[in-house]
Design brief:
By secondary structure, the protein is an all-alpha fold. The chain is 57% helix and 2% strand. The protein has a two-stranded antiparallel ribbon. The protein has a two-stranded antiparallel ribbon with strand order 3-4.
Length: 336
């Protein structure tokens, strides 16, 4: 698991996973050490491919979207074996597609007929929608577009909040959660862009405006509130990063400078409030002292990898050395 997460971080470092900028910029020079790290960790991920399990699939029977995306990126760079393994895992993932109700179940364990419901979360469905969109645009295989439409239909029927934003899943909390919404909006922007869907574009803009208005405080950044507006827990790194990337995607798709400005605001907040000066990596939460600490499980590798990726993408889009240096400090902190 750790190898896969940091391979995706390294892939972000060298820019293979960066979003397309609204104005084209030349590819930056890649430091030899970063290139070597990327190749080494990519090889480790590739070696974790398990054909008996379905490809890049966890023991819980869940496809590892980060590994698939990394292999798709390498495939676009000419690595035929990486592309083959990514597409094979996507084909296996069709066993998790609910062709009746729409969307994907989270993993094979959720297909147990003894369970009272199918667990179909927003985050895994959004990540798989983005992968299907990438696979379709790269291979022109219409089967990926067909599967993506099943997911989009599920989003619009079940997960979409008419006021703007998405619920966290088919069941559970209806509170507006920045992390799951950020990931959902990223996939929504990619799908809307390749399908020239103005209605979906407008809904994404409406959703981002609502989250910025209702889920963001100047001091804490993006926060999670209850239905009654109370803060649920400290500000979380994952919420900042995924909403920052959503604004970056919006700028890439629309060219609106206001979206890039907001992405920069989020990045500045992450660097100022979440960075650990002693270690160089990012803390997972930030709060006023009186608020206490979150009871969520710690995900230092995953959240730091995603933070570094966001900063690299923003740095590439803006020629921002500050963002690139902050990202580099992150993976250097985990070097050991």
């Amino acid at each position: 698991m750790r190898r896969t997460l940091f391979a995706c971080l390294a892939a972000a470092v060298v820019g293979t996973l960066a979003v397309a900028a609204a104005s084209p910029k030349p590819a930056p020079t890649i430091a030899p050490a970063d290139q070597a790290l990327y190749e080494r960790l990519s090889a480790a991920v590739s070696a974790a491919y398990d054909s008996a399990r379905g490809g890049f699939v966890t023991r819980a029977g869940e496809p590892h979207e980060a590994a698939i995306e990394l292999m798709l990126a390498r495939g676009r760079d000419g690595d035929a074996l990486a592309l083959q393994r990514a597409l094979q895992t996507l084909r296996w993932s069709r066993t998790l597609l609910d062709t009746v109700g729409g969307g994907y179940v989270n993993g094979t364990r959720d297909k147990d007929p003894k369970k009272a419901f199918l667990d179909k979360g927003t985050i895994p469905n959004a990540r798989r929608l983005e992968l299907l969109t990438q696979a379709w645009t790269f291979t022109k295989d219409g089967s990926y577009k067909r599967d993506a439409r099943f997911v989009v239909d599920y989003f619009e029927r079940v997960l979409l909040d008419p006021r703007g934003g998405f619920y966290t899943g088919q069941i559970g909390s209806i509170d507006l959660e920045p992390e799951s919404n950020g990931i959902a909006l990223q996939s929504w922007w990619r799908w809307a862009a390749v399908n020239a869907a103005p209605a979906r574009r407008d809904f994404a803009l409406k959703s981002e405006a609502r989250l910025w208005r209702d889920c963001r405080l100047d001091e804490l950044g993006f926060v999670r509130r209850t239905t009654f507006g109370q803060l649920r827990e400290p500000a979380l790194l994952g919420d900042q990063v995924e909403m920052g990337r959503a604004h970056l995607y919006a700028w890439s798709a629309t060219g609106r400078d206001s979206e890039l400005t907001r992405a920069k605001e989020v990045a500045a907040h992450v660097i100022e409030r979440f960075r650990d000066p002693a270690k160089g990596s990012f803390r997972l939460e930030y709060a006023y002292e009186r608020f206490g600490h979150s009871l969520r499980a710690r995900r230092p590798f995953a959240d730091n990898a995603r933070a570094a990726r966001f900063l690299v993408e923003l740095g590439r889009a803006t020629d921002g050395t500050l963002y690139l240096n902050a990202a580099r400090r992150t993976w250097v902190a985990f070097d050991r």
